[in-house]
Amino acid sequence: MSVVRRWIPNQHGAWAMLVVPSLAGVLIVSPSWPQLPLFVAWLLAYCAVFHAEQWVRLRRASRNPRAAARHRRPALVLGSATTAFGLPLLVAEPWLGIAAALAAPFLAVNVLYARRNRERALVNGLAAVVPACGMLPVALRLGGGTVADGLAPAAACLLYFAGTVPYVKTMIRERNSQAYRWGSVAYHAVALVAAALLDPWLALPFAVYLARAAVLPGRGLRVPVVGAVEVGCSVLLLGFLVGVYG
């Protein structure tokens, strides 16, 4: 179990962002077998990139060379596993290379912020959201749909998960910042309008997201409770995406 804890990133907030868009892309269309290795490769790639970024960060931020070195092996092994799952899929579906190329600039931003030891920066969090939400049309097309079919639900995912970045900060690291709190509420109000324009039914979950952004900050909720609320919000989004676009 200790090996699992060392190799699997403990970034609990990232897992919903990794899983929900991909799973929505699977469920909106009829699930197909090629989506399984894509999903596995996607999760492995996240783990590999996480350890690579920690290696880059700790080489500069830590005086202990072992701190960075302990991430080298997981990065290499998990990167190799990603290749094992992803390369055959790429050969069968060459268009996936375009998707990977589109995600590369956002990955570069994440690596740059890791190198500067500023992984918690707002821009860095937002950069991570974009390729995660982009997995929805990728999974959807692999299941027989079209990229165009996935754009609206991917936009809904982007509206929600981009909002989680400032909102979570108002609950933890920036819990005393009125600027962050008002900025988060303003964003969620705009997101509610944008989601309603995508589909009127989406106004319902986004009204919930706006309410939680307005009411919960400042109430001293513990981190596990904050996480549980976001899991519930993510499941709510998944249900509406499948119901509206499926």
From TrEMBL:
InterPro entries, per the entry: YwiC
Keywords assigned: Membrane, Transmembrane, Transmembrane helix
TM segment ranges: 12-30, 36-53, 74-91, 97-114, 121-139, 151-168, 189-211, 223-245
**Superkingdom classification of source:** Bacteria
Q: Tell me what this protein is called.
A: YwiC-like family protein
Annotated source species: Streptomyces roseolus
